[in-house]
Design goal:
Elements: H1 15-22, E1 27-29, E2 35-37, E3 39-44, E4 52-61, E5 68-73, E6 78-80, H2 83-91, H3 95-109
Length: about 110
């Protein structure tokens, strides 16, 4: 019996799954044709209802791969009661959506969207 997988069924199809399976961040080519990786940034803030927030930062790599030449980031994407909650929310994000968020951040930086 053969088993077929949809892209979101694979263990490395989410941000957290990819990090766990490959022990490194996923890489993407942005809409600007530059190479990017992604990291989840988690911060505590003074909000009793949702004191923890998370967003994505996309370092842009030199085409040689030998250094970071800039970055783009998303607005706050997840809020929660504790660090583990927002990390789990970020980790469950499909890589296809992470790529969409990267391209939105690049367009926002270029002034194409607000």
């Amino acid at each position: 019996m053969s088993t077929s997988h949809t892209p979101t069924d694979l263990p490395d199809s989410t941000l957290g799954g990819y990090l766990a399976a490959h022990n490194r961040p996923p890489a993407f080519e942005g809409v600007d044709r530059q190479p990017y990786t992604v990291s989840v940034e988690v911060e505590k803030r003074a909000n009793l209802r949702a004191p923890w927030i998370a967003y994505l930062v996309f370092p842009c790599w030199a085409e040689t791969g030998l250094g970071i030449v800039g970055h783009v980031e998303t607005p706050v994407l997840w809020e929660g009661q504790d660090r583990a909650e927002v990390e789990a929310l970020a980790g469950s994000t499909p890589l296809t959506h992470v790529k969409e968020l990267l391209d939105e951040a690049i367009r926002r930086r270029a002034g194409e969207i607000e």
